[in-house]
Protein 1
Amino acid sequence: MKKLFTIVAVAAVALSATACSSLGGKKIDSLSYAVGADMGQSLVFGMKDLQLNQDVVVESLESFYKDGDILGEEIKETRAKIMEYQYTVFMPYMNAKRHNDYIQTDCPDTLPALPELFNETFTCEAVSKMIGMNMGAAIKSLQEEIVMADVLRAIEDVKALNAPEEADSLLRMTNEQIRNAFAQYGERQEAKAEAERQKLMKENAEASAKWLAEIEKQECVQKTESGILYRIDREGTDVKATEDTDVVLVNYEGKTSDGNVFDSSYERGEPISFPLNRVIKGWTEGMKLVGVGGQITLWIPSELAYGERGAGADIGPNQALEFKVELLEVNPAE
């Protein structure tokens, strides 16, 4: 039963290769057959206690793959309902079943009756349809061409098995072939992601260089030897941070070159304190350029910010950043 409610994550699991296999002269698409075999075994063996209507599952799977929207509200609501079913119906059933299985008795008829697996809200057909939709969405999320006929063929092949152990001898791909295909799919996805990352790194580096070049032309903007651009927006006192271990109290706002605010102490409603040796290099250097009570704008090249790795969803690799900072206090490290 372990696979029943992890099927949402099927698309994130390395599934299979697109190379072709054959049996009895019939060629099959390995990616598609492996997906079908994996889902078929979940359906036939992993979910056997559910007694789903397998025809409805397969019909719903095929229908969603053809016309469904993996980012749409329908699949979001379906997954929420699956979770509700899991916690309100399925888990109580399984807990009661485990309890009954644990009790040793010569009179099994005296054991408490198990809760029902279906009810007016979650009928057998409704749950079967939800599981099928979820499987269809998972397949559609793979971002590789799928031959649905081979997915369905694999599911039918699994239905003919009496036990999972028969898979190696009776399916058109052995478990080892499927595992190898899974790994190949994962490798292709990693290579694709890395190629996209390299492209983004190049685009961001070029855009950042162009942006900083334009900033450098602005009035009152100065440049440090390391490449930081800065402008003193409000003069402060003569008290400045001088050591990397100094602790500063600041209010600040951070933006990307397109004006997106990715961090702001103003939005949080309170300043923040930190030692200068625990922030990006551009801050460590830049905060020594303004006195207490002053305000400075920093434009920091990516190599002095978050570099090739970026930071979270808002800061991409090789992306230069802008910070507007008010220095409120400077204190030596304790």
Protein 2
Amino acid sequence: MNVKRALRVWQRHFTVYRKLYKSSIVLNFVEPVLYLAALGLGLGAFVREINGIPYIKFIAPGIIASSAMFAPIYECTYGTYVRMTYQKTFDAILATPVNIDDLVAGELIWASTKSMVYGSIIILVISLFGLVDSPAIILVIPLLFVSGLIFAEISVIFSAIVPGIDSFNYFYTLFITPMFLFSGIFFPLDTLPGVVGKIAFFTPLYHLVNICRAFAQGTMITAGWDILWVFAVAALLAPYPFRLMRRRIIR
């Protein structure tokens, strides 16, 4: 893989995004804010506190994590598949000196960048509403890039093996939705059967929620193992998007 060529792919995606960013940011921004308002204010009227924390403050860091998750997942499932299959963008890029590994790396870097950007927007919003107790929340931003890489890797892997675009319904319904609901965003998992917490431990969103919540509360040291988990899994998954996408494209 050539880093310079991978960044050219990133630059291509950024150039296209600059023409569409207003509608894209609005769509990705409104949904998490609606969750925050509907659940934080609506349900928060009945659930006053969780572990001594006002309910809206409890869920706010989790909304950062969910926004940082959905951005790379959308980008590297439907986005990657459409560029590869329907728009033939991959064919055009591969007609240049860029090879498959450069192309995949560019996809991953771009998706991770979007994860960091969208998560940062939510950080700004909840900070303006006074839902953050510590300025240490700013330190989460580079970790959003790393966790975004995990979501991008998983999504590219799935994009490389699906037989058709309709198959993404299985990915979202059987993997993304359960992970979103049972990651600790809206309620502590210790209220559920122990097996749920054990399964959640193997999902990246669970750890990102823990990280965002710890940094928002100024208790960063409690997220040490979660940070290590994120870096380890990002490294562990790294080879597979390249191998599977290479097999898909060459086939």
Protein 3
Amino acid sequence: MNTSVRASIDLGTNTCLLLVAEWEPGRTEPDRVLADVSTVVRLGQGVDKNRSLAPDAMERTLACLRKYASRLTELGGDPSTAVCLATSQARDAANGSDFFETVVRETGFRFRVISGDEEARVTFSGGLLPGMDPARSVVVDIGGGSTELISSRGGQSLDMGSVRFTERYLQSDPVTDEQFWNCQAAIDAQLEKLRSWREALGAHADLVAVAGTATAIAAEHLGLEQFDASRIDTAALSRGDIHRIVEELKWRTVKERLELPGMEPGRADVILAGAMILWRTMEVLDFAHCRISTRGLRYGALKI
């Protein structure tokens, strides 16, 4: 068996994820996961408004990538061969290319900035759990800057995300009713574009949610104090479950949200917008239930 140590990085608007696995070429599943790490770096801080990466955001991300390079080397991998993908914030930032040149010099990681369509395709490939039927599955990936909805017949990328819409609409702590309703209206307006796409999928399509918003919601729903992928990957939430969580997040301050089970400090301020996107996706596009997957783009990247 020609198993080798392979690695991928998913660098999004809010988080940076590293997957290191022993993965035999040609297989659709890893032989053994050596590391699966998520760090909140908020690289997309202010990008929606300023269209450039902020200096402190770049430094946070660079510090994270230095640690990832060391970890990968310790596990027998090579940073220069890792599959490194950057998404929404890099597409929108004028200084993104300069930043990634610095990343190459200091870490060896070579990033490729992918389009929303490619992000959707790779996320669908990586987001499904073993046993899920691709023909009837729809993956929703709620990122910090964009949201992708993908089926086996294609997908859509929308310019709404937990960081982007928090900065744009949910600016007080706690949020006001007016801010909440304005944010909901903006989410619904984006989703209305997908009504005909949704109708073509048929009534029996199964929604699968990936990425940090979804796993944080599942952790809260399950009462998990520590991240447990085996339990999150079996979670199924109804529209009512998601709506209840949205209402609970709405009245809490960021500090009070940190008291919820499994809530990360770097996610507490943007989790409401992310939860609203999932809730409205289920309402507007008529999905009664949602499965949760801890996988996503980083798994799909190793299948490219």
